Each structure stands twice: as structure tokens, then as C-alpha cells.
Amino acid sequence: MKLLNTERACTIALIACVILILGCRNKESAPVASPTPNQSEEQTLNAVREIAARILEVDPQSIDVDTPLSKQKVPADEVDAVDIIIAIEDAFKIEIKEEETGGTEHLADRLTVRKLAELVARKKQGS
Length: 127
Prior knowledge:
By secondary structure, the protein is mainly alpha-helical.
């Protein structure tokens, strides 16, 4: 009987995770100004800030570009950090590899908007 309850709890937890992930995906559907190939560092920084703000559902000006995503006024969790990276990849038509962000563990603690914008700038220069 206990095993059955554990299996049921795991199934419910799995369904809740899927719902959460799908809900986060819906945040990405809001329009963001399309980045241009030759945009300045400041424009890239602002575009990344807007993406982070949209995912975190806050005003872009409330995002401190030098503060880790997990330490913002509305802190990002690991799922938010991954959603921000995916939205950046989509917006800038780039691929950000796991090793470029230092792995997935404590991602929101390590990443800042400025670090992400610098990564985008390096990627865009290389293409």
C-alpha cells in the first residue's frame, strides 16, 4: 500500500513539473524587439535585460544587470534561468552550450544579465 502511495505521489509531482515548465514556456511568447545583427553592446544588454524581465514578469528597469539572476528583486530560480537562456537563443538565433554557462548547477546564482549579454556579443562576433 505504501509503494502505491509513493508511486502516486511521484506521478503527481511529475505532472506538476510538466505544468510548471509549460507555464514558463508561455512567458516566452510575449513579443520582444528583434535584435539586429550589428547592435551595440548597450543595445544587446538592454535586449537581454528585457528578456529576463519578461520571464521574471517585472519591469526591465528593476533588473540590475550586474546582480545574479537569483538575487534580483524578483529572484530567478533554475527553471527561470533556463527559460531566459532559451529565450535569448531564440531572440538572437544563437546556441548557448551548457559549458559556456558553467553548467546547470546553481545557474541562477552565477549568471547576470551582463554576463549573458557578453556571451551573446561573443557569439554574434563569431558568426
